[in-house]
Design a protein that fits this description.
8 helices; metal-binding; 310 residues; AstE_AspA_cat; two-stranded antiparallel sheet
Length: 310
């Protein structure tokens, strides 16, 4: 793993990558787990209870990945629609497994109350290689905009388009890991020919709200539910979490649409990006999955109990 004292092993410092550097980077990405075994087999088991939508296919050289969303069987257009996404960054494991666990354990509790659509693994190539980027060294979670360079992002936007303006809730499940500092941020700096500036990984769960349309009570309802499962990240000495001011316990804000983030793809009034910290000695994989599940349930419950904000 690169460190702050040595340059990233691909490319020339200060020079953005070209096709040769991307090809070198890609050659080093080794499949470490199976999308078919970990995700598609679970989806197949859920098929008896839910509808499945194949919303795209990624054809990546020798790798072909069908993209699936799980959908309420009792879908009714007059009901509020809830979107849950996981695995936009494939290496963020609890986002994928938390989404699947939510469907298996809780989705039927909302039958007849909301329309649910869950895309549990948006970026399967990266899931298998435990990486942030797709095959082309593109970050899907900075690519949710027209003419997206990431086919994963483009496919999800096509799926969401018919109900984009009718969605009530969107929860996008993520993790912040120690590897963000040891690998992914140094790689990003090298790819873009920029200097690497070390950051600090927060110890605990936090949320990202939309700075353009903040919903502080909604975010705090999620934080309260998750705090029963795992610890909430404190602010650092500057009062920040990953470089952004903490606006409430465990909450920061980003301009979601401006940054091309997944949580911007609907006009849902209630939206949040979760960030679990799986590398904490105080958290187990089971807790991380459960925290994601608790966040989704709290988000839906809050939206059902309150009128839609204007």
């Amino acid at each position: 793993m690169p460190t702050t004292s040595s340059p990233y092993p691909i490319g020339t410092p200060g020079v953005a990558w070209g096709p040769a550097e991307v090809a070198t980077w890609r050659s080093l990405q080794i499949r470490q787990r199976s999308y078919d075994a970990d995700v598609l087999t679970v989806i197949e088991r859920l098929r008896e209870r839910f509808d499945m939508v194949e919303y795209g296919v990624l054809d990546y050289a020798l790798d072909r990945y069908p993209l699936f969303a799980i959908k309420s069987r009792d879908w009714r257009d007059e009901l509020p629609t809830v979107l849950v996404t996981g695995g936009v960054h494939g290496y963020e494991t609890s986002g994928v497994h938390g989404a699947l666990q939510f469907v298996d354990q809780h989705a039927e509790n909302y039958a007849g109350r909301v329309n649910l659509i869950v895309a549990p693994c948006v970026s399967p190539w990266a899931y298998e290689r435990i990486h942030r980027w797709n095959m082309h060294a593109v970050d899907p979670n900075r690519s949710f905009f027209d003419d997206s360079p990431a086919p994963e992002s483009a496919a999800l936007m096509r799926l969401v388009a018919p109900f984009r303006d009718r969605a009530r809730v969107h929860v996008d499940l993520h993790e912040t890991t120690d590897s963000d500092e040891s690998e992914f941020r140094p790689a990003l700096a090298a790819r873009d020919g920029a200097p690497y500036e070390p950051g600090e990984i927060p110890d605990g769960f936090y949320l990202v709200d939309d700075s353009e349309h903040p919903q502080p009570e909604f975010q705090q309802a999620i934080i309260a539910a998750v705090a029963k499962i795992t610890h909430i990240a404190p602010a650092d000495v500057r009062g920040e979490i990953i470089g952004s001011p903490m606006v409430a316990p465990g909450v920061i804000r980003y301009p979601l649409k401006q940054l091309g983030l997944c949580a911007s793809i609907t006009n849902a009034p209630y939206k949040s990006t979760t960030e679990v910290y799986p590398d904490s000695p105080r958290a187990t994989p089971e807790q991380c999955n459960a925290a994601q599940v608790a966040a989704v349930c709290a988000a839906i419950d809050f939206a059902l109990e309150r009128p839609e904000p204007r």
